[in-house]
Amino acid sequence: MGESCCSPEPGSRIRGFIQPWILLLLSERPSHGYELLERLHEGSPETPADTALLYRTLRQMETDGLVRSSWETGEGGPARRLYVMTSEGVQCLHGWAANLRRTRDRLDEFMAVYERRFADSGGRGGEDGGGS
User: Fold this and answer.
1) Taking the CB of residue 96, how many other CB atoms lie within 10 A of it?
2) What's the N-to-C CA distance of the chain in angstroms?
3) What is the pLDDT of residues 29-61, one digit of tens each?
4) pLDDT, tens digit, 9 for 90 and up, residues 57-97
5) Cα 20-21-27 angle, rounded to 5 deg
6) Rounded to an integer, what distance in angstroms lies between the CA atom of residue 119 and that of residue 24?
7) Are 49 and 18 in contact (CB under 8 A)?
8) Backbone angles phi, psi at 31, to 5 degrees
9) How far is it, in rounded angstroms, from Cα 104 to Cα 52?
10) How high does pLDDT run on average in the chain?
């Protein structure tokens, strides 16, 4: 049958997942946008973050009060924004973690039922998808 249009590519990003990653990285230390981009790539090299998406997300997070930034001038280089997480950002990160735990639990439930259902077919439901 081939690849289904609803089947994500292996290693594909979870939509909207960049915000908690940014918050988690900023919880470790304040960072410039370029550094955040590099660190996002380290965490998931097969699905690098898009530069424009990163900066749009940072601007929205600043508008929402989750991060704040200040201009920092470097020796011989252009001024760059340094991003730090706010207390609201910490609370948001805790909320993301709680939601992801619930999602992981639901996914574990789904996989357990799926594996029981298709245990004898090696994960394939046959030509009709295994429906009744």
Assistant:
1) 16
2) 19
3) 999 999 999 998 886 665 567 899 999 999 999
4) 999 999 999 999 999 887 778 889 999 999 999 999 999 99
5) 90
6) 37
7) yes
8) -150, 155
9) 29
10) 83
pTM recorded for the entire structure:
0.75
User: Which element (helix H / strand E) includes 37?
Assistant: helix 33-43
d(C-alpha 99, C-alpha 90), whole Å = 14
> What totals of helices (H) and strands (E) does the chain contain, helices first?
4, 3
CB burial of residue 68 (10 Å; 0-12, 13-18, 19+):
middle
Minimal CA–CA distance to 82: which of 23, 34, 24?
34
Write out 40-78 in H/E/C secondary structure: HHHHCCCCCCCHHHHHHHHHHHHHCCCEEEEEECCCCCC
Enumerate residues 6+ apart whose C-beta is below 8 A from 43.
21
